[in-house]
């Protein structure tokens, strides 16, 4: 729970992807004796009391509060938009279900950094670039996402032009004790096999 005077916080697990490259629903992949879904929810619940799944309620509501995309079939940007429209919190942590090495400590680090700024997005940079699905968003970003979605522009990075953002440099992420391996995501069976050798 935030202390008095701290921004309110909520967490959203983005679980609504089609998983076409994996060939099966990634949320239910077994990884180190847990599904990716269970692993991510356990991690998020260590840092936020208010955790909501963004996905098909028919599939996910048995696992906790669940909301569907308002703009369906528009990818992760649609999920972020739905989350921000649902949220009453000032700081909204977004996490993709397919990032099994994101730790509670990393999420606490991001939320603490977000609480130090009024920028709309607080986002870490890793070796593969910005990490929009392991980042913190303020509610105003919902209107920016909605304009992009209505225009048919579904790339998250494209919405970042000309908005106040706090980018956490890769070196700062590393200095805080994290690494690129923490942001590894499982998109394909090859990724799943490669992840087995990672110990972030």
Description:
This protein has 200 residues and is of the alpha/beta class. It has a single domain (9-195), classed as Spore Coat Polysaccharide Biosynthesis Protein SpsA, Chain A (Alpha-Beta Complex), CATH 3.90.550.10. 30% of the residues lie in helices and 19% in strands. The protein contains seven helices and ten strands. It has helices at 36-44, 57-60, 76-86, 104-115, 141-150, 170-175, 189-195, and strands spanning 9-14, 30-31, 34-35, 51-54, 66-67, 91-96, 121-126, 129-130, 134-137, 165-168. Strands 1, 4, 5, 6, 7, 8, 9 and 10 form an eight-stranded mixed β-sheet that branches. It has a two-stranded antiparallel ribbon with strand order 2-3. Helix 2 (57-60) links the parallel strand 4 and strand 5. Helix 3 (76-86) packs across helix 5 (141-150). It starts with 8 loop residues before the first strand and ends in a 5-residue tail after the last helix. The model has no long low-confidence stretch (mean pLDDT 90).
């Amino acid at each position: 729970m935030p202390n008095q005077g701290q921004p309110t916080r909520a967490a959203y697990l983005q679980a609504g992807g089609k998983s076409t490259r994996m060939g099966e629903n990634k949320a239910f992949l077994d990884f180190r004796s847990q599904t990716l879904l269970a692993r991510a929810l356990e991690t998020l619940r260590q840092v936020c009391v208010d955790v909501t799944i963004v996905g098909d309620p028919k599939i996910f509501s048995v696992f906790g509060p669940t909301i569907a995309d308002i703009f369906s079939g528009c990818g992760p940007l649609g999920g972020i938009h739905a989350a921000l429209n649902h949220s009453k919190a000032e700081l909204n942590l977004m996490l993709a279900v397919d990032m099994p090495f994101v730790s509670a400590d990393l999420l606490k680090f991001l939320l603490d950094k977000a609480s130090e700024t009024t920028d709309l997005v607080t986002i870490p940079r890793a070796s593969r670039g910005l990490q929009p699905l392991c980042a913190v968003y303020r509610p105003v970003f919902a209107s920016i996402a909605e304009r992009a979605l209505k225009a048919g522009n579904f790339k998250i990075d494209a919405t970042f032009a000309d908005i106040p953002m706090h980018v956490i440099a890769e070196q700062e992420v590393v200095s805080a004790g994290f690494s690129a391996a923490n942001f590894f995501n499982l998109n394909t069976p090859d990724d799943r096999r490669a992840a087995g050798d990672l110990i972030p």
